Amino acid sequence: NAVAPGWIASSGMDTYEGAFKAVIPTLREHVPLKRIGSESEVAAAIVFLLSPGAAFVSGNTIRIDGAASQGSRAFPLFKGKPGQSRAYNGFHRAYLPDVLKDQED
Questions:
Q1: The whole model's pTM is what?
Q2: Domain annotation covers residue 6
Q3: What is the CA angle 70-83-60, rounded to 5?
């Protein structure tokens, strides 16, 4: 099994420089759920795969990408609205990169 994260808010986002750092705040516009995922959402999927509840889950990739891998702007499958999907930040190490702090909902 595998976990395949999309755009996830993490401390790594603060390490980018130049043009890419300027693009980071716009990434949510390219995700159908209109937000960037949280580290806790990735961790929750991993915890599930390690749990007895996933004992019969085999050979799967869990995408944690807000449906970004399901469509594109040319062929939208879901038109999300900001605020429809709230990030799960249930673990104690939830982190919001500095580059996204002015983008909070």
A1: 0.71
A2: yes
A3: 30
Q: What is the CATH number of the domain that holds 17?
A: 3.40.50.720
Count, residues in the chain: 105
Domain span holding position 27 = 2-85
How far apart, in Å, are the Cα atoms of 43 and each of 63, 65, 71, 89, 91? 12, 13, 24, 10, 8
pLDDT one-digit tens code per residue, 14-65: 888 888 888 888 888 888 888 999 999 999 999 999 999 999 999 999 999 9
Whole-Å CA distances, 60 to 11, 47, 49, 69, 101: 28, 15, 10, 15, 34
> What's the domain count of the chain?
1
Q: Output the six-digit token pair for 93.
A: 């190490």
Q: Where are the beta strands (DSSP E) in 27-76?
A: 37-38, 61-64
